[in-house]
């Protein structure tokens, strides 16, 4: 038996060694795209905002654009509304999507299938169509106002062109991905664990808190990380549904570049947004590293 193992080992090692260049080639393609499309533009933007050319043509270290951003009240208000929108959307997504994922995981029949189809539907609706539907339904003189007027009720105060407009649109737009990630994490919760906890007298809250939540904590962190990164850098929905002032960083960058003709200022705003996204991304990387370690 030992002779057979000794004879079989070299071919297996040779096979793994022969496959290694092919595997590295497959990994090299996405790594190259990330370097080309993400890392290099970020490095270029950072270098162009800290190494500036003065009036005499001399290049030197200059942080004046960052000093202006963090001393300008309008820029800080835009950063604050971006952070507020991101945090509110993250909390609302967790409050809305976690019960949906729990229902889909532990329910059977046709109704959960219909609920899942409705939860995933926003994934197939473009943001521009979502914004138009939002305006037609909740905007001034929209469908809600028409229905309320028909029954003699006063008009509602529309969230359109207020900070809550992008919140509603972004939450709706991010429901599918959040539900799918949470549902995938709930797949690791075996029914035997739930049944054993109920056998010893645990109620629904204790089952959720001590059995389900510890096993899906990483999935919750991953879902929130993806949502936060997408919301923080969003443009279409904040541009169409949000107020003109203060505005989120996405529309702020576009207006600074197009209307003010200030590419350095726009790149400074992009670098600041990139820095906050890195902080959010570290939670995702930490979660992945923890799972790999386990």
TrEMBL record:
Coiled-coil regions, chain positions: none
ABC transmembrane type-1 domain location: 79-289
Pfam families linked: BPD_transp_1 (PF00528)
First and last residue of the signal peptide: none
Membrane topology annotation: Multi-pass membrane protein
Subcellular location: Cell membrane
Keywords: Cell membrane, Membrane, Transmembrane, Transmembrane helix, Transport
InterPro entries per the UniProt record, alphabetical: MetI-like (IPR000515), MetI-like_sf (IPR035906)
Segments traversing the membrane: 21-43, 81-104, 111-135, 164-183, 220-244, 264-285
Similarity remark: Belongs to the binding-protein-dependent transport system permease family. CysTW subfamily.
Identification of the protein by name: ABC-type spermidine/putrescine transport system permease subunit I
UniProt source species: Neorhizobium huautlense
